Amino acid sequence: MDKRYEVYCLVDPWFYDAPAHTGRDESHDFEAARRPVPDGWVRSELGDWLVYRPDDLKLPVQGWKIHASARLDNAEEILAAVWDYCVPRRISFKFLPSKVSCSWRTRSTRTAAPAASS
């Protein structure tokens, strides 16, 4: 079985579904997810992501984006750095709002390595 599908099996015992559709009342435990929306900004949800953008921003059809990588143990720190960089420069960004959503995302993209033989 392709391990990328495992996370979709965990949501419901009978049907595949996206982790964002679990219906669980997930708290937004990252501090940035609980911050007030900055003046002149809009916050929206896109699946399991929180999206922040300047309210008058018109994104081009094509363009570049930068990914910031983090582990669960430093995600809060990385997210704070991204917020502190992007908000004053009016650069839109999105992030997963909690350690739980990061764990689900990690499970959906992780591939299993073959076990080492002894």
Structure description:
- This protein is of the alpha+beta class and 118 residues long.
- The chain has helices at 6-11, 31-34, 75-89, 99-109, and strands at 41-46, 49-54, 93-95.
- The radius of gyration is 17 Å and the shape is globular.
- The relative contact order is 0.22.
- The model is unreliable at 110-115 (pLDDT under 50).
For the biggest sheet, the summary is: 3 strands, antiparallel
Uncertain stretches: 110-115
Mean pLDDT: 78
The ordered H/E elements are HHEEHEH
Number of helices: 4
How many beta strands in the DSSP annotation? 3
State Rg.
Answer: 17 Å
Helix content: 25-40%
Morphology call: globular
Distance between the termini: 24 Å
Beta-strand content bin: 5-15%
Main-sheet strand order equals 1-2-3
Question: What class, by secondary structure content?
Answer: alpha+beta
Task: Describe the SSE topology.
Blueprint: H1 6-11, H2 31-34, E1 41-46, E2 49-54, H3 75-89, E3 93-95, H4 99-109
Antiparallel strand pairs: 1-2, 2-3
Question: How would you summarize what this structure contains?
Answer:
The protein has 118 residues and is an alpha+beta fold. The chain has helices spanning 6-11, 31-34, 75-89, 99-109, and strands spanning 41-46, 49-54, 93-95.
Please supply descriptive tags for the structure shown above.
118 residues, alpha+beta, 3-stranded antiparallel sheet, 4 helices, 3 strands, 13% strand
